[in-house]
Design brief:
Order of helices and strands: HHHHHEEHHHHHHEEEHHHH
Strand order of the largest sheet: 3-4-5
Largest sheet: 3 strands, antiparallel
Radius of gyration: 20 Å
Oligomer: single chain
Number of helices: 15
Distance between the termini: 19 Å
Helix content: over 70%
Shape: globular
Structural class: mainly alpha
Number of domains: 1
Number of strands: 5
Length: 343
Amino acid sequence: MKGRIENIQHLRGIAAMMVVFVHFPTALQKFCGSIGVDLFFFISGFIIYISIERTGYYNRPLVFLKKRLLRIVPLYFAVLGLYLLMHLVLNSLRSSSIAPHYNIYDILKSFLFIPISENGVYKDPVVFLGWSLNFEMFFYLMTFTVLLVFRKKYFLPLLSLLILLPVTGLIAGGFENVYLDFFTSSFLFYFCIGLLIGHYQDRISNFFASFSEVIFFASVYVLFLVMLGRDYGYEHTGITREMVIYDHVAYQRFLIWGIPALFFFLSYFSISKKYNISNRFLNELGNRSYSIYLLQVFFIQVLYEIGYKFNETGIVFLSIILMALLVWVSGLSYKYFEKRFHA
């Protein structure tokens, strides 16, 4: 099992850096899109299944919820609090800040992992990266509820919910109400698939074993074509990141980014097991992945604050320096803050 967990750590690190790359103007920015989040959602479903089966959380649902909250909440609250403080300071030094303005209700919803709606339109949390954590938290609460009711027989009921809710959203064509759209989001499919991969991991590895290399390079190539092609970002209706604009047409994100990300996940999972891949750097990057994901918001701010002083080449070098600093600081965050809550 050690090898399997290690390859998931590799994927966590890769996913975190993909998200970082898209937020800094380097040669990798366009290629990465936001597929790092797609990978994170697959990984999350996988990890939840493994952790439940390993520890018997189906008999201890409250312990399951406590552990998941301790993984997510402390660092997010710390980053959110520091981010708010940073902008209070910036606003006191000048007439306006780069950050959007939020009222007290928006701030409370950000802390409570509740989607924000303004005049019926979705709005990102104060720390914009928290949008994905809203889905993570919904998944954890859904899993906790199912464990509470079904105990050891949790798998099929949870799987059914993770299929039924997004199918309802797809049949309805999405909902104009932000909250209904959130609870029936197609992002729930990612967690569902992650659970299935966890459940059938040995069969999947064996199935892909003979041609995993081909699938791996094919998925990378497809991602490369997609990201360098006619990708124009998100459609801003409902939960804005469910749909992506490709060649001026809105598509379900899963079709454009999710499917190649899934094959990347499956093929690397199989390859790393097949060749017993062990990489200390990727493993450490995986340990730091959550800190990397959240702390980048401060480094993005630094880029916005001083980037105008540099020419195009200078901004690229500045971005590389900031990303390197982010990885280093995230190591300190993981060692001295995150690990304190990993019981």
